[in-house]
Amino acid sequence: MEWIIENWVLVLVIGGMAALHLFGHGHGGHKHGKTAKRQTAQKKMPDASADTRVQSEDA
Q1: Confidence (pTM)
Q2: Residues 4, 11: contact at Cβ < 8 Å?
Q3: Which of 22, 32, 48, 58 has the CB geometry, 3.0–4.6 Å to 52, for a possible disulfide?
Q4: pLDDT per residue over 22-49, tens digit each?
Q5: Cα separation of 32 and 24, whole Å?
């Protein structure tokens, strides 16, 4: 018990690191595998800028 009182900062840092790893770092967890890659690819829809959708007045 005396060691914990003397090294409370170290105990706090180790406890914080353990809590971050257990609760996913606050980023919604980890995604692995083919389904995660497929979902990210579906979310990335290429958006054309507004000037490419409209024909130019010069043409």
Answers
A1: 0.40
A2: yes
A3: 48
A4: 887 666 555 666 666 677 777 776 665 5
A5: 13
